[in-house]
Design goal:
The chain is of the alpha/beta class and 243 residues long. Helix content is 23%, strand content 30%. The chain folds into two domains: 43 residues, no CATH class; 181 residues, Rossmann fold (3-Layer(aba) Sandwich). The longest helix is centred in the N-terminal third of the chain and has 13 residues.
């Protein structure tokens, strides 16, 4: 994993591929002002899109895996952690978390769109090894913001893989998560010493500054996706609430 932001020319990223040669599995309306979320399939490959823009492709999940791995590394030595994941996606973040946390862990997944949960129990399940079947997992079909606003000192780690990061595409209310108020809610929902890990499709210097202003000890990490020597980079922020 590198903080280097350079990138070499190579084949187009998966989100540049046209959806025309993919088969429609299902489209659903995101609650509130979120528009239409579409699940597409081409052979064993799946794509989640909104407004014609790809949010996730099953061929590329290095940064989703890294989100869980980096958060877990910060909690080394803590047994039976309680973890909150905002956003289920295709289950890769959840699956990576289950691999890194012990048998006594409890992992709460907040997913606003109930059909995304159904897709993960159906056609998307095999992609990440059916993580929803793990007995450590509790699914709450609700906005993760409601959980953050209602709980204090509840979690050892909070992983936000919601929308497209601070520059959201799916649901306008997601923007609140990345404001000072949203970050303060996450800060207070963590145990002292707890970790907030945030996924984004791109860097955002102002967001890093907001994390630090809230009181987090925060760093920005760039994760290369696709081939090891070329491709795009996603951005992760790993932030710790001081003990």
């Amino acid at each position: 994993m590198s903080n280097d932001t350079s990138s070499r020319p190579c084949a187009p990223a998966p989100d540049a591929l046209p959806p025309g040669d993919m088969d429609l599995v299902e489209s659903v309306r995101v609650p509130g002002d979120g528009g239409k979320l579409t699940l597409l399939r081409r052979g064993e490959e799946f794509s989640l899109r909104v407004h014609g823009t790809e949010l996730m492709n099953s061929r590329v999940h290095e940064s989703e895996d890294a989100l869980s791995e980096l958060a877990a590394a910060k909690l080394a030595g803590i047994s039976s952690p309680v973890v909150l994941i905002g956003g289920l996606g295709m289950g890769f973040t959840l699956a990576a978390a289950l691999k890194r946390f012990d048998a006594g862990a409890k992992v709460v997944v907040a997913e606003l769109v109930s059909q995304v949960v159904a897709w993960n129990r159906g056609p998307l399940g095999p992609l990440a090894g059916h993580p929803l079947n793990d007995p450590r997992v509790v699914v709450r079909e609700m906005d993760v913001a409601r959980i953050l606003q209602s709980e204090e000192d509840a979690y050892h780690a909070i992983l936000l893989d919601v929308d497209n990061g601070p520059e959201g595409l799916v649901h306008g209310s997601n923007d609140w998560l990345y404001t000072e108020d949203g970050l303060w809610a996450a800060f207070t929902a963590l145990h002292p010493g707890g970790v907030l890990a945030v996924w984004s499709a791109g860097p955002d210097r102002a967001f890093l500054m907001r994390l630090r202003k809230t009181g987090f000890e925060a760093e920005e990490v760039r994760i290369r996706v696709q081939a090891p020597d070329c491709g795009s980079r996603d951005t992760l922020w790993i932030a710790r609430r001081p003990a």
